[in-house]
Amino acid sequence: MLPDYDGGSNASLPASITTAFDVPPGGAGPALLPPLRRELLDSSLIAGARVIVLLVLDGLGRLRLDEALADGRVTGLGTSQHAATLTTVFPSTTAAALTSLQTGTPPGVHGMAGYTLYLPAQRCVANMITWKATGGVEPVVPLPEPRSFLNGANIYRRLHAHGVESTHISRNVFAGSPLTEAQAHGVPFAGHRSLAELVKQIRTHAARPGRRFIFGYWDGFDALGHAYGSESDACDLELRLIDLALGEGLLDPLADEADDVALIITADHGHHEIPAERRIDLAEIPGLVERWSHRPTGEQRAAGLRLTDAADRQRIEQHVGDRMAVLDVQAAIAAGLFGRGELHPELLARVGDTLLLARDDSSVAYPGSSQQSIGGHGSLTAAEMLVPLLVWRFRR
């Protein structure tokens, strides 16, 4: 399931939102991806709204949501005035997709192209969430400042330049975090401690006067998906709690009191179960670990390698069999997997020269890799790549 950067991915939402606010294309930074195609979002549904809310439910894939809607476990999320299915970006992971959702550009352009990336100046693989070097390797120079890491403007700056103010609503603990600083530096931050406080914050800021964009983020489903699997009882309960909180705490009040508010709900990616017995240990390939230039980038379902022996790619293919797709990164870039346009100059260096992408429920492990989770994402299966688009418009 390939990312649809031609108006069919969640990365096109920033262009749809700026268009709805009558913000012209162009300006500082790389060009935005095109707005969502009309069959996916009729622009009249959000055009001219005084307030637009974009709420991202981390890890809630379209397939998982459809299951819950079909058997009646959730109801509020089924009341949208418009629903569609989008792809996320590649890799299907939070660091890449959340950045695209706030810049309107694909990972190959903004450069946050993975959960972990090799930073050439620092000569280390760094975690893009914690902003720390991995594998016990000390960077030769300090990691770059998060707020200067991305290649170009974000949606908040584009809107501010045309009189639309923004608010970023996320967990209290993410205030000033490296990823928040990279994606939304300078944007007023409103913290929350629970689902109830999240919806309260959205309503409070939506009620403020003037034109306004609100970005909201909830990570609970993703956290439980990693810990227990997205099909688990824990995730089932979490989804029903999300549905209850949004229905009673946001949708019903907005229907009663909102002064022209458009609400868009989507996700950054979905999840796939990854049983322990399906994990592939790269250390079992003779000599591979000793020959690669640095530890893998990416994550357990989408790993990037920098190989020093050309024959190693063939050895890897023989070892992983039909459980992983082994791709040349330059070919993947040329095919547009990371997006098109003016690609980040360090993209190839940050990812590596060989991609290992999980088929079905496989994953990879290697020496020094973090503890393997029960659920994961990053690859190109439908469970990971397809995300929901739900839209409401509330007018008095």
Brief description of this entry?
The chain is an alpha/beta fold. The protein has 14 helices and 18 strands.
Oligomeric state of shown chains: single chain
Described by strand count, sense and barrel closure, the largest sheet is: 7 strands, mixed
Task: Give me the side-by-side strand order of the main sheet.
Answer: 2-18-9-1-8-6-7
- Catalogue the unreliable spans: none
Helix content: 25-40%
CATH class of the largest domain: Alpha Beta
* Tally of separate helices: 14
> What percentage of the residues does DSSP assign to strands (E)?
15-25%
The name of the CATH superfamily of the largest domain reads: Alkaline Phosphatase, subunit A
Tell me the count of domains. 2
CATH architecture of the largest domain: 3-Layer(aba) Sandwich
How large is the radius of gyration? 20 Å
Q: How would you describe this structure to a colleague?
A:
The protein is globular and about 65 Å long. A seven-stranded mixed beta sheet has the order 2-18-9-1-8-6-7. A four-stranded antiparallel beta sheet has the order 12-13-15-14. The protein has a three-stranded antiparallel beta sheet with strand order 3-4-5. It folds into two domains: 10-109 and 144-272 and 381-394, Alkaline Phosphatase, subunit A, CATH 3.40.720.10; 276-376, Gyrase A, domain 2, CATH 3.30.1360. Helices cover 30% and strands 21% of the residues. It has helices at 13-20, 62-70, 94-103, 107-110, 155-160, 178-184, 195-206, 220-228, 233-257, 288-291, 311-320, 329-334, 347-351, 382-385; strands at residues 51-57, 82-87, 116-119, 124-127, 132-133, 165-171, 189-192, 212-218, 261-266, 272-273, 279-281, 297-299, 302-305, 324-328, 354-358, 363-365, 375-376, 386-394. Helix 3 runs parallel beside helix 6 (178-184) and helix 8 runs antiparallel to helix 9. The model has no long low-confidence stretch (mean pLDDT 96).
